[in-house]
Design brief:
About 70% of the residues lie in helices and about 0% in strands. With about 55 residues, the chain is mainly alpha-helical. The chain has one domain.
Length: about 55
């Protein structure tokens, strides 16, 4: 099925990466969430790299 702008919408994977960078500034107060966000960022970066690969 062809979905218009599907590739552009999938670039929103960058949002968890930006949240991760913001949380790393205050990492001592977010120790519980840091492990989960690390997994999400690793997945997001992997997806982002496969989407932007030429």
């Amino acid at each position: 099925m062809h979905l218009p702008y599907a590739n552009e919408l999938s670039l929103f994977i960058v949002i968890p990466v930006l949240c991760y960078v913001l949380i790393l500034k205050k990492w001592k107060s977010h120790l519980n969430e840091l492990s989960t966000l690390t997994l999400l960022v690793a997945y997001g970066l992997g997806e982002f790299l496969t989407l932007t690969r030429l």
